[in-house]
From TrEMBL:
Pfam families: Na_H_Exchanger, TrkA_N. Keywords: Membrane, Transmembrane, Transmembrane helix, Transport. It comes from Roseinatronobacter domitianus. Residues 418-540 form the RCK N-terminal domain. Belongs to the monovalent cation:proton antiporter 2 (CPA2) transporter (TC 2.A.37) family. This is Cation:proton antiporter. SUPFAM superfamilies: NAD(P)-binding Rossmann-fold domains. It comes from the Bacteria.
C-alpha cells in the first residue's frame, strides 16, 4: 500500500491529509493542541515510522507558502503606532535573550564536555525560536493583538533578523553556510535590501494601497488572489536578498494594513493559512530523524530545561527592568521557551561541512522535540501557569510599571456604575448607549488598539486581562452595580478556558456585590453561565431578533433589556 502511495505525489498528499485529519481528531478528543498533533503526523509519516513522505519538493513549497501567508496575516493587523511604542522593548528583549542563550548555552556545552566548536554550534542553535509556531499559537488563542502578544512578535522578528545576520557572518568566516532559503550575501547588502524593502512598502502605502484595493474590492476573489500574490512576492524577494521569507511576508501584510479592506482579506485568508501550515508541521516532523536520538540524553535534558526555564526568565527580567508588569513579561517570555526548525538546519550545516558530528544533530533534535512540545502546552495554558507562579515573580516587577499603558489605574475611584470587559463591537455598542443615558462606564480590554479606540470615543478604559486575578481585584468593584462581559469565546481546541466563568469567579472572590451579565451565543453556554453565577445572560443574536420582530410587528419601542435597571437603581440611591 505504501509503495502505491509513493508512486503518486497526489496520492501521497491525500494520504497525509487523511492521516492529519485522523491524528488531529484523536488529539482533540485527548484535549491536545493541534500543533502537537500535526508534528506527530510528520513523525508518523517520516522515515522513522511509515516513511510516507517522498514528495519533499511539493510539501516544502506548500509549507513555505503557508509561512508567507501566516506572516502576511500578522503584518496586515500591525499598528504602526504600536510598533513605534514597542520598538525599544522588542529590540532589547530580543538581543538580550540571544546574548544570554548564546553565552550560557556555550558554557553549558563545555561543562557537558562537547568541545568548543560543538558547544558554539549548539549554543547558537538554541537562540532560534520558532516565529511560525508562536504566531500560530497566539493567533489560535486570540492573543496576537494583546500587549504581550505584540511584544513577543516584536522580539521574535528581531531574533529572526539576528539569525539571518548571524548565518551570513558565520558563512563569511567559514563556520557555517547559508541554507534553506536564507541566502548569503554581505551584512551591508542585507541591511541595504531591508531598508529598500521598507521604503518600497512606505511608497506603496502612501500612493497605491488604497486606490488599488478599492478597485480590486469590486471582485472579492481577485482581491484575495492579489493578497496571496503580495505575500508570495514579498516573501520571495525577502528570501532572495537574505532577509528570509518571514520578514518578506510580514512586510507584505504591513503594506496592506492601512487599507479599509484588511479585515476582509484577513478573514478570507485564515482558512488557507491553516491548511498550508499543516504542511509546514508535516515537513518539520518528517525531517526529524528519530534514529539519532538517545546519544546525548543527559545533555538533551539539561539543554531543554535551560531553554524552557532560562529563556523565559531572561525575557521576564528584561521586561521587568524596563517597567512592564510581571504578568506581561511572563506571558511574553513563554514564547521563547522552544527552539526552531532553523536550529536543526543550522546544526545540519555544521555536520555537512564537517565541523560537528551527527550526534550533535541528534542532541539538538531531541531538544527541539522536547521544547516545542512542552512550550506549546506552556503557552496554551499560560494563564493557569501564571496563577501557579504568581507569588514567586514579584522580584521581576518594578513599582508603578511605567511602561504599561499610562492611564492604567487612573479610573479606580471614579464610581463607575458599569464595568464592561471586552471592547469589541458588541461591548462598544453597549458602552456608547449607556453613556448616552448618563451612566458612567469603564471599559476593560487587553488589546491596545481596542483601548485606543474607546478613548477616541470619549469612553474611560483600563488596560488589563479579565483572567488576571490581581488586575480584577484592583478594579473599582465595590461602587459598580453591573459587570458586563462581552469577551468573545472561540473554541480553538487549545485550553478550552472560558474567560466568562473565570471572570464571574474572580469578581465574586474580590467582593463584587452587584450583578453580572455575560454574552452567550448558544443555549448550552447559557445554561452553564447561569450555573456559574451569572445574573443575566445576553444573547446578542436572539435579543436582536426579538427586537426586530417587535419593530416589524409595530410594538412599542420600549427598552426590554435588563441593563436599564441601572437607572432605576441610581434613582433609588439618589
Amino acid at each position: 500500500m505504501i509503495e502505491i502511495i509513493a508512486q503518486s505525489p497526489f496520492a501521497e498528499i491525500a494520504a497525509l491529509l487523511v492521516l492529519a485529519a485522523i491524528t488531529g481528531f484523536v488529539g482533540i478528543i485527548l484535549r491536545q493542541p493541534l500543533i502537537v498533533s500535526f508534528i506527530a503526523v510528520g513523525l508518523i509519516a517520516g522515515p522513522s515510522a511509515l516513511d510516507l513522505v517522498h514528495s519533499d519538493a511539493q510539501i516544502s513549497l506548500l509549507s513555505q507558502l503557508g509561512i508567507a501567508v501566516l506572516l502576511f496575516l500578522v503584518g496586515i493587523k500591525l499598528d504602526v503606532k504600536l510598533i513605534r511604542s514597542l520598538g525599544a522593548v522588542s529590540l532589547l528583549t530580543g538581543l538580550g535573550q540571544v546574548a544570554f542563550t548564546s553565552i550560557f548555552g556555550y558554557l553549558i556545552g563545555l561543562a557537558l564536555g562537547l568541545g568548543h566548536i560543538t558547544s558554539l554550534y549548539v549554543a547558537i542553535a538554541l537562540t532560534f525560536s520558532s516565529t511560525i509556531i508562536i504566531v500560530k499559537l497566539l493567533s489560535d488563542k486570540r492573543e496576537i493583538d494583546s500587549l504581550h502578544g505584540q511584544i513577543a512578535l516584536g522580539f521574535l522578528i528581531v531574533q529572526d533578523l539576528v539569525v539571518v545576520l548571524a548565518m551570513i557572518v558565520l558563512s563569511a568566516i567559514g563556520i557555517g553556510a547559508a541554507s534553506d532559503g536564507h541566502g548569503g550575501g554581505s551584512v551591508p547588502m542585507v541591511l541595504a535590501s531591508g531598508v529598500a524593502m521598507v521604503g518600497l512598502v512606505i511608497l506603496f502605502v502612501r500612493f497605491a494601497a488604497d486606490p488599488l484595493t478599492e478597485k480590486l474590492a469590486h471582485a472579492p476573489e481577485l482581491l484575495v488572489i492579489f493578497a496571496i500574490a503580495m505575500a508570495a512576492m514579498f516573501a520571495a524577494v525577502g528570501d532572495l536578498v537574505g532577509l528570509g521569507k518571514e520578514v518578506g511576508g510580514l512586510l507584505a501584510g504591513v503594506a496592506l494594513a492601512s487599507t479599509p479592506y484588511r479585515e476582509t482579506i484577513a478573514a478570507r485568508l485564515a482558512p488557507l493559512r491553516d491548511f498550508l501550515l499543516l504542511f509546514f508541521f508535516i515537513a518539520l516532523g518528517s525531517g526529524l530523524d528519530l534514529s539519532l536520538l538517545g546519544t546525548h540524553v543527559l545533555g538533551a535534558i539539561v539543554f531543554s530545561l535551560f531553554v524552557l526555564i532560562g529563556n523565559p526568565l531572561i525575557v521576564l527580567a528584561i521586561m521587568g527592568a524596563m517597567g512592564y508588569r510581571k504578568r506581561t513579561g511572563f506571558l511574553a517570555g513563554l514564547t521563547v521557551a522552544q527552539i526552531s526548525e532553523f536550529s536543526l538546519i543550522f546544526i545540519a550545516m555544521g555536520v555537512t561541512i564537517g565541523h560537528v558530528q551527527e550526534d550533535a544533530l541528534g542532541l539538538v533534535t531531541m531538544v527541539g522535540l522536547v521544547t516545542i512540545a512542552a512550550s506549546t502546552y506552556m503557552i496554551t495554558y499560560s494563564h493557569q501557569l501564571y496563577a501557579l507562579l504568581d507569588r514567586y515573580l514579584g522580584i521581576f516587577e518594578r513599582k508603578g510599571t511605567p511602561r504599561e499603558p499610562s492611564e492604567a489605574g487612573m479610573h479606580r475611584n471614579d464610581n463607575h456604575a458599569v464595568i464592561i470587559f471586552g471592547l469589541g463591537r458588541f461591548g462598544t455598542a453597549i458602552g456608547l448607549r449607556l453613556q448616552k443615558r448618563g451612566i458612567k462606564v469603564l471599559g476593560v480590554d487587553f488589546n491596545p488598539s481596542a483601548i485606543r479606540r474607546w478613548r477616541n470615543l470619549g469612553l474611560e478604559t483600563e488596560f488589563g486581562d479579565a483572567s488576571d486575578p490581581e488586575f480584577v481585584s484592583e478594579l473599582p468593584l465595590p461602587d459598580a452595580k453591573w459587570i458586563v462581559s462581552t469577551v468573545p469565546i472561540h473554541p480553538t481546541g487549545l485550553s478550552h478556558e472560558d474567560t466568562r466563568s473565570t471572570l464571574i469567579q474572580l469578581t465574586r472572590m474580590s467582593g463584587f456585590p452587584g450583578r453580572i451579565a455575560v454574552a452567550s451565543h448558544n443555549a448550552r453556554d447559557t445554561e452553564e453561565l447561569f450555573a456559574s453565577g451569572a445574573d443575566v445572560v445576553l444573547e446578542p443574536f436572539h435579543d436582536a431578533a426579538d427586537r426586530a420582530v417587535e419593530l416589524l410587528c409595530g410594538a412599542e419601542s420600549e427598552e426590554r433589556l435588563a441593563i436599564p435597571t441601572i437607572e432605576s437603581e441610581e434613582r433609588e440611591t439618589t
